[in-house]
Design a protein that fits this description.
The chain is α+β, with helices and mostly antiparallel strands. The termini are close together. The strands form 2 sheets. It has a two-stranded antiparallel sheet with strand order 1-4. A two-stranded antiparallel sheet has the order 2-3. The chain has a single domain (3-76), classed as Alpha-Beta Plaits, CATH 3.30.70. It contains 3 helices and 4 strands. Strand 2 (46-49) and strand 3 (52-55) form a beta hairpin. It binds iron/sulfur cluster (SF4) (2 copies). One iron/sulfur cluster is lined by residues 25, 40-41, 43, 45-46, 55, 59-65.
């Protein structure tokens, strides 16, 4: 992961209150906004923010989104 992307990932992990999220998954900049993950998410935890899709802090880490993404744009946070 290069420095620029890492900065982007850190920003995505911040919730509306500025606190760190508990989500174990992150949507990378490779996302093509097909919305398949949005449709599969059981609790609507994926939303568009600042022109890119992000996983918000309601994520229950079920892993369904990572399985359906056609281009492997959702990564598990180590
Ligand atoms: S891991 Fe599950 S709850 Fe979290 S964003 Fe993906 S589908 Fe939604
Ligand atoms: S399924 Fe993958 S490519 Fe499609 S919107 Fe979700 S993260 Fe982006």
């Amino acid at each position: 992961m290069d420095q620029e992307n890492f900065g982007s990932y850190k920003n995505q992990r911040k919730g509306n209150n500025g606190g760190l999220m508990l989500a174990k998954y992150i949507i990378t900049s490779e996302c093509i906004k097909c919305e398949i993950c949005v449709e599969i998410c059981p609790i609507a935890a994926i939303e568009e923010m600042d022109t890119q899709f992000v996983i918000n802090d309601t994520c229950i880490n079920c892993g369904k989104c990572i399985v359906v993404c056609p281009i492997d744009a959702i990564k598990k946070i180590p």
